[in-house]
Amino acid sequence: MGDVRPTSGAPAHGLVPLFPPGLQAIYGECRRLYPEQANPLQVTAIVKYWLGGPDPLDYISMYRNMGCSAQDIQEHWHYVSFGLSDLYGDNRVHEFTGPDGASGFGFELTFRLKREAGETAPPTWPAELMQGLARYVFQSENTFCSGDHISWHNPLDNSESRIQHMLLTEDPQIQPIHTPFGSVSFLQIVGVCTEELQAAQQWNGQGILELMRGVKVAGGPWLITDMRRGETIFDIDPHLQQERVDQGIETEGSNLSGVSAKCVWDDLSRPPEDEEDSRSICIGSQPRRLSDKDTEQIRETLRKGLEFNSKTALPPINSQKQNHERPQSRKDSLESESSAAIVPHELVRTRQLESVHLKFNQESGTLLPLCLRGRLLHGRHFTYKSIHGDTAITFVSTGVEGAFATEEHPYAAHGPWLQILLTEEFVEQMLGDLQELNTREETKLPKEYSWPEKKLKISVLPDSVFDNPLQ
Predict the structure, then answer these.
(1) CA–CA separation, 468 and 285 (whole Å)
(2) pLDDT tens digits, residue range 292-322?
């Protein structure tokens, strides 16, 4: 990764003038906070990224922060990255765009790690974590925003810790700065447990961060990560915290826009033996392929994490630990990033269906109330993508852009991708009828719900039905 050394300003090496202006601007902000630590320990990339090295961050400075016991702020190590913003202004890494826009990607990363008793020097593993995040940003060109979540699925320090994912927030101390190459803000990484990540996905990251600020052991006002924390905020205060999350979903909606699921749908408007008709789909036989555009769009919806201000957030970054269940996006449009609008495959026309039957396993079924209350009642959409084959079911509310289901024809399909448009009135009715799915207890399967006047049927079935493709 790099070597660790005390540094006094920017190291002088042949290609770089001493104190390049972008670097100097960040050092200046750090000196304002830590005037007595002019020579902090620093991890440096041995071979700089612009010389072909693997690590995009040229430097990561590590400071000792004494905290403030009166405000419940623990003593901790404070890490600051250098390299996501434009340090040099000469196009070697980032395109120079002048002083008025964002410098490079427009942000640097910070991290606050609780200092353990007896520690005299900061652990260096956070520097590798920050390099990993920076590699993702450089490779994907997706920038991060406050409130974003990162599904990591691995203890951040490779220990046995429960802290296995991250949320991002504004650093509470380092102010955004203006450099000759543009503006730079500072996003702090906050380590979280799986249950906290899931709550952030189902509600939003900012809400969970706010709850954590009020719990000293979960981070306190400055959201300091404690890798030895064994309890989630829900363990510490089960009723209050869960209540706040449920209330938040109710009032603000959910940022979870899709899940990989066990699900199928049947077109009840056609006789099942009508397999030869090129417009029909027969679940259980070889399903027809989705067009590339449709596949790309569903993939984008599921790949994305939280989005604020239409900025992308974060798919799982650890290639070894792919996240198959916790997905992704906040757009009130079904357009993918890569296509300006849905362009149906020329050979697949939209089919309007009279009557449909949706089948979900228990895990997917329990998300239906969240889909309806947290997404559709807030003018958003929600996708179930089958883990078997190409089947997908997207619920949309009136007014979602790019949908091919309409109020006139609320059930419509492109190949095996079904869209269902539900009016607010019907959503309220369904929520009343599906109330028992809200409970966190196991319900007896199979469960069947039917709305004959709407020609819609939903079944919640045992996993075995989906695991055996012949059924």
Answers:
(1) 12
(2) 777 776 766 655 432 322 222 333 333 322 3
* pLDDT confidence bin for 140, thresholds 50/70/90: confident
Other residues' Cβ atoms within 10 Å of the Cβ of residue 153? 17
Specify whether the CB–CB gap between 359 and 265 falls below 8 A: yes
Domains in the chain, ordered, with CATH?
21-252 (no CATH), 257-270+347-470 (3.30.1360.230)
Q: Which residue has the tokens 């003018």?
A: 379
Most confident of 70-79, 277-286, 303-312: 70-79
Tokens of 298: 């569903």
